[in-house]
Amino acid sequence: MKYIKWGMIGCGDVTEKKSAPAFNKVSGSSLHGVTSRNRSKAVAYAKRHHVPHVYDSANELVGDPEIDAVYVATPPSSHADYAIMAMRAGKPVYVEKPMASDYQECMEMNRVSAETGMPLFVAYYRRSMEYFLKVRDLLHNQSIGKVLMVQSSLFVTPRPEDMDKHNLSWRVMPEISGGGYFYDMACHELDILCYYFGKVKSVGGWCTNMGGLYPPEDTVSASLIFVSGLIYTGSWCFVSSKEALADVIEIIGEKGRIRFSCFQFSAIELENDKGRQMFPIDPPEHVQLPMIKSVVEDLQGLGTSPSKGNSAVHINWIMDEIIGKK
What we know:
Elements: E1 4-9, H1 13-23, E2 29-35, H2 39-49, E3 53-54, H3 58-63, E4 69-72, H4 79-88, E5 93-95, H5 103-116, E6 120-122, H6 130-140, E7 147-155, H7 174-177, H8 181-197, E8 200-208, E9 219-226, E10 231-237, E11 246-253, E12 256-260, E13 268-272, E14 275-279, H9 289-299, H10 309-323
């Protein structure tokens, strides 16, 4: 596959800047067509982003022989259905995160990928970003020696839309998103840590709803043990005050520590016997571009993408365990 024409299912906010423009900025790739449940929305999107084709349905898009690969950019509850549809039609898939609304759906997606031989990639794009690769390099270079423990805190204020109980965002509707903001945001933190430290073997978690703004959990605490024996503790609160805002991941080693953020891209901080060093690294204009580039190169046989269904399924398992989803 030398040149890849992409079809995109869903035209939500995540695609406006983070992802969709990147398909046209990667060599050997272009966004060929889009579809949405709301055709007028898809038409406006295509006009705004100079996408040549609009399809009336996902079935029509997937069935077009001009489409080589499919980007699923809908809410998690439909990820499995659209991804499986595309793979059964012989199309590789790049799906938004989290991979699906629960672990079992992820397992079925991977089963169909294996059955059809169609590659399945997941948009855990931090695995390809320079900022997070710098942290990985610091770890690989033994900048803090043996890693002893990891901890993180993510405290954010409620969003304006959280205040209207009659018009809540799909992100806080578990039947659509899989959970609350924990599923939407913490998955990125959990994934990058699994990228650094491997798989988790044991999970303990506690969740509650402290703000009463929407049905799912808004405050979560968890302890994980990686297969290596490394212990991680994380805390998340999505109804915090602005005075308590936090976005920090701290890796403690026998010779120092590394501090960085998951969403704010604050300067990476290294403290060891050489003193304190700061590494400011800004995100790219389109944060998914490095990952999309890796996906295209993987499909072209020029490289290997670091985020596929077989790694992303593990993140859904961890989150399901933390909130006690059955």
